[in-house]
Amino acid sequence: MVELKHHIFVCTSCRINGQQKGYCFSKESVGIIQRFMEEIEDRDLSGEIMITNTGCFGICEKGPVVVVYPEGIWYGNVSIDDIEKIVEQHIEGGNVVNELLL
Amino acid sequence: MVELKHHIFVCTSCRINGQQKGYCFSKESVGIIQRFMEEIEDRDLSGEIMITNTGCFGICEKGPVVVVYPEGIWYGNVSIDDIEKIVEQHIEGGNVVNELLL
To answer: Signal peptide: which range, if any (chains A, B) (predicted)?
Structure first.
């Protein structure tokens, strides 16, 4: 069994036909993933936090979309500059970032 | 806020460079996603269950990997023929499929 405190999913618009093309991808979602990875590594959280890129969540107009489980928190219109706050306030502090909630 | 009963994630080996290449993809994970979608639609569960394709979970040797949240259940070595059981027993019945657990 895999034991994680949080599992962060970031839409990078992967399609099952192998294309990566879509709104979240066009809005720097790959940079969002990379920024999450840096923050998690810098804070030495990689044993308990996983970051996974995904295909479309079906709400492209609200992208880039980030979903955090097990709590099932959905963030929308996320930018690279929001990542530090999500990690500090939600992942480390346990308090959802209300202004980014969907 | 998005309200889901279960969110099923299936690794299709999407990479953030846009390539879809890897063990889960080579082992028919795209067919696994399609089978999940058929089962969910046939059972009229699409309002409460979401299926999302993902990039690598880092345990390729145990792929294809399927992760179900919010309960955080990880299944490995999943085949297309296992999907009906996962949906019937776990998603509808609430009982984890022990023989597929990681």
So the answer is: none
